[in-house]
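> run fold Gamma-glutamylcyclotransferase AIG2-like domain-containing protein
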Amino acid sequence: MRSPSPLPFFVYGTLRPGEPNHDLLLRGRTRAEEPGRLPGAVLYDGPGYPYAVDEPGGSVRGDLVTPLPEAYGELLLALDRLEECETPGDPRNLYERVARDVVRTADGAVRRAWVYLAAPPVAARLRARGTRIEGGDWRARRS
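> ok
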């Protein structure tokens, strides 16, 4: 099993504050939740949740979530299970957890964070025939 660095998470879909998986997994387990932006990626619509895919020039809106230290290990395992990326590089993964630089919206500070990006086979399918979310904001697609 991986022994990752204790980084915050950048969430952009159902884990954002006010969304169902935030309430289920993150509520009461975070020290800070701040709006942020992931440069170099775009969003695609999925079956009830989005996928972020690397793409130069793109930008994804979301939230930088810093877990409470005592909740970190359990939360990391729960999020890996939710995102179906329990084994790095497994071709069955829906997402891969990767470290990326995220920009805090409030002050422009850059923070390293874990981000769940579409796994390579999923990303290839999305690029070929997926529905891209213009503007990189999953919430705004509903308006």
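The chain has one domain: 9-132.
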